[in-house]
Structures are given as structure tokens and as C-alpha cells.
Write a structure and sequence with these properties.
The structure holds two protein chains of two kinds.
Chain A (H helix, E strand, L loop, with lengths): L1 H28 L4 H6 L5 H10 L6 H13 L13 H36 L4 H15 L2 H15 L11 H30 L3 H8 L4 H31 L1 H6 L5 H10 L3 H29 L1 H8 L1
Helix pairs in contact in A: 1-4, 1-13, 5-6, 5-8, 5-10, 5-13, 6-8, 7-8, 8-10, 9-10, 10-13, 12-13, 13-14
Chain B lengths: L4 E11 L4 E12 L4 E5 L6 H9 L7 E10 L2 E2 L5 H7 L4 E4 L13 H11 L7 H14 L16 H13 L5 E5 L7 H18 L2 E6 L2 H7 L2 E6 L2 E7 H6 L5 H8 L54 E2 L13
The chains are: A mainly alpha, B alpha/beta.
Amino acid sequence: MGRYVLKRVLLVVPTLLAIIFIVFGIMSLTPNNPAAVMLGPRASADAVAKLNSELGYDKPMLARYVDYVMNLARGDMGKSYNSRREVFKEITLRFPTTVKLATVSILVAVVIGVPLGVFAAVRQYSVFDVTGTAAAMFMASMPGFWFGMMAILLFSLKLGLLPSYGSKTPAHLILPSLTLAIPVAATIMRFTRTTMLETIRQDYVRTARAKGQTEGRVIINHALKNALLPVVTVAGMEFGWLLGGAVVIETLFSINGVGKLIIDSIHKKDVPQVTGCALFLAFFFMLVMLAVDILYAYIDPRIKARYQR
Amino acid sequence: MGHLLEIKGLRVEYRSDESIVKAVNGVSFSLDKGTVIGLVGETGAGKTTTALGIMRLLPAMTGRITGGEIMFKGEDLLKKPPGDMRAVRGAMISMIFQDPMTSLNPVVSVGDQIRESLEIHSVDSRSGSAMDAKVDELLELVNIPSRRKKEYPHQFSGGMRQRVGIAMALACEPELLIADEPTTALDVTIQAQVLELMRGLKDKLETSMIMITHDLGVVAEICDRVAIMYAGEVVEQGSVRDIFESERHHPYTEGLFGAIPSLAAASRRLAPIDGLMPDPTDLPIGCKFAERCKYREAVCGHTAPGADAEGHAIACHRFAGKRHGAD
């Protein structure tokens, strides 16, 4: 197990190098002139060229890539073109907010999605199952920002119950985290239902019934424990996406998280900041996936056995 | 003196949108304490369905018991509320399943799976350590070292898993054990081991058993009585001697014995039964075996033959009206 984890951690390094390369590639494909954005429209051509060269922006893309990686190896993610502050500092300032939002959302989604999925599977083709599955399909297909806008309209503007922007108090997190959680809960529900339908027909579930076990225990101890593996994967992936993918919702609710930072930085051609954010989120996404894989081994002894060899 | 188990006219159907499969059509047999009855027949004859019917574990969406009685110790299991039935399952009647590779939960240790039965039926409020001791004892009983109880099913061979299944079924010392082809999925050498084990248990614990099999060798080895099933009916039943030594047989039983290779016979070819079992969604009105029967008469086409559930009974018009005692 330890060796496996080590191997996975070492794999993070080449993956991150590839991500940096892709971000650099995309940023240099788009028409791009950071100094012009920084100095404004009235700056002289000379001043723009001078600043670009100071920033190292006159070098070819590959050279900038190598420079960036070398600096990164020394723990330096560079300075934001925009705020002139450390890229890393800018991120760590906002990351706790994003983590809070993502964590609350995934917890809400799992707490809603898994039981509903189990219930729908156990009562397959019942009214609950049919309406529940249809509703989940709708929730999963609708864009998140639409839910967000509807929620603001109803709870903030009409009923005045909840704040619609910022992230100062826990109450501020209710609407955005629910908005994020709804489609995720729907996905998890549908996924749980499908895998549960498979496991409740397994022979070992019948064996548990043959022992005289109660229906509830049969479903939870025997069927759900086996159905959990794919559900954990989906929940982990969704959590990873929430960490980096809350861009739209953070913008909608004016939450000062990493997602919003990326959007603002892209608008301002702030290459170091965008690269830094992408890198940071990719790193955390990989951490979450690693955690999911380790969790597997605790759920399924067969997987643990495979690692130990 | 009543029987331990008496099944009268059991009928089971599987319903789907397209069709109704008549899997068990009026099965009757009985079983006394400490004896073993063999349910013999080819795949699809309704053996497993009968067993699941007794346990009331038919697939919930499709399986329906449409008639009959299952009297166990004088009570009709079919009339029991679900909670009472749960108290019977595992404690008084338990079942060993056909495929040891799929019938154990892959993510629960074998010790915990055996212990589960004890926990469910812990009417005598056993302490935790007493239960642990019982788990050890059960594992040793089926020749598995008790130190392996923390291991998971994937760490055991098929034969060992089947023995874990047996230990699980025996945990609460049931009065009736239903073994659904316990040796079919195993190698021949392991089959012998498992059979030997089950025969030992029968002698030691005096457990009654229903042994489902399509292997007449297994029947000869362990059974006291035999019921031959065909298309959801018992076509012949009697003591092991009746089945193996009597001159009188249902034509299907004759066919079954004809299909066993013999070392003594000069013929090098087996004699298979021509034709196939009738479609269970569209069973014939008369004798279900008539289509394939070489003794077929006019009456077979429109009237189903009947038979008793006692003595040596043959459901065939050739023997109609004659009782065949224990000959």
C-alpha cells in the first residue's frame, strides 16, 4: 500500500508538467499582450515593449515554459501581472473559501443522492423511482447557473431569506452550495440507483436473506457496501470538479474564490496567475483522486490485496 | 406423528410482461427428522424454485407462490408474516447455495459472515466472545483453520468457500438444511470432500436435509428418499432402494438411469432421452413427459397422471391405481 501511494504521488510530477505546458500553449495561442493590458490603452509602444521584456514575455513560449518550471522548482510561482503580488499568496487567500464551498456541496450531494438512489433501486419501477429518476435527469441536465439565478430570485429577492452575494457568514454559503449540490446530488442518485440495482440481485444478497437478516440490514450491510465503490469514484470526481469547477457559481454569487480568480485573471491576460491557479487546482484534483483510490482499498479487500502484492 | 416438513401441491410461477413461466406445478413430498431427501432432475425441472419457495426467497419482482402448503413442524410457512419467516430462515431452515463463487459477500470477512447468522438469531443472548468461539468451532467443523476467519472470500478456493457456506448454514443448528447442488460448481475431488463432510454432519447433528442435485451418484451416497422432478412435477418418489433397485420406474427415471455411463455394460454409447423438456410457458394438458415417452398411450395426451406422496409413488398411467409399497 505504501509503495503504491508513493508511486501515485511521484506520478503527480509529470502530470503537473504537462498541465503547465498545456496552459502555456493555450495562453500563447490567444492574442496576448499583458503589458498593453497592464499599462492601459494610452501607453506608448516603447513602454509596452519594455515592460513585456521585463516580464520575460518577449521570449518564445518554450523558453518561458522552461523558466517557469525552473522557478517553480524553487517554490516560486511568480508574481501576478495584475496585482503585482505573489501568485501563490493570491491563491491561498481565496482557496479556503473554495474548499468550504466544495466540501459543503459534496456533503450535501452525497447525503441527498445516496439514500435517494438506494431507495429508488429498492423500490424499482415504483412511483417514487419513476418520478425521482426523471427529476434527477432534469436536475443533472439543467445548467447550474440557472438554478443559481432562480434561487437568488426566490430566496433573496422575493422572500429575502438569504444573502445572494459574498461569503462572509455560513448563511452566505447556503445558496451557492445548494446550487452546486443539486446537479451533483442528481448524478450521484442516478449512479447509486444503477449500481444498487445490480448488487441487490447478487447471490450474496440472497444468502444474507437466507440467514434471516432484516431487509434494511440486507440492503445496507450487503448490497450498499458493494455498490459503494463506483459511487465513491463519482463522488470523488465531482468533488474534484467542485474544487476547480465552481467558476460559474462563484462568479454568479460574487464569491471571492479560486474560480472567480481564474476568470478575472483570464480577462486581464494575467498568465502567471492563470497558470498558477490551473496548477493548484490540478494538484488538488489529483490529491482527491488519490484519496479515492486509497479509500477503495478500505472498502474492497480485493483491491487492497492487489496493492499488497 | 407428523412429518418435519410436508409440502402439499406447491405451485410457483414466474411472471413477466410477456409470459407466465409455470416452474413448479403441484409438488408434494415430505421429510422426517434426521433423514435426507434428494430432489433430482435436469436443469429447469423446478428443483431450485421449490427450495426457494420453502425459504420464501423467490425473486420478489417475478416469483409467486400460487398454491399449496408448506407445513413445517405443523405450521404453514406460507401463512407466516414476514417477520416470523425471518425467524425461521437461518435458524430453523437454512440453505446452502449452488455457486460458492457468488454466494458469499466479497467485502465481508468469512468470520463476520458466519457470525452474522449468530447475531441475527441470538435468542439466547450469547456474549461476543461466545459467538467468536462458536465461529471458530464452525470453521473447524468444516475443516478450515479458524485463524483464517479474518480473511475474505477471494482468499479461499471454491471448495473452501462452499465449506464456509456450509458453516454459515449450520451456524444456528437448523433442523432442516436445503443444499442446492452444493457440489455442482466444484471439482470432482472437492465434490467428494464436501459430500463426505455433509454426510458426517447428518450423522453427527441429525440434521434433516433436502439435497438438490442432478447427480444420481450424490443421491446414492447420502439420501434416504428420492423425488425425481420433471417439468415442475414430482414424477416418481420413493426410498433410495425403490429408485435404485425396483423394477418399476417412471419412464423418465428409466431414461435418467439410461443416461449414466456404466463400466459393466458392453455398449460404449450412452442412451440419452430424446427431445427436450416442454416449454414452461406453454405446458401440455396431459402428462408432461408424453412427448418424449416411448410408452405413450392415448390417455397420456389429455389426462395428467396423479401420484401419492408416500411410499414408492410413480406419476404414470402405466402404474395408475396401483400402490407400490416399500418393495
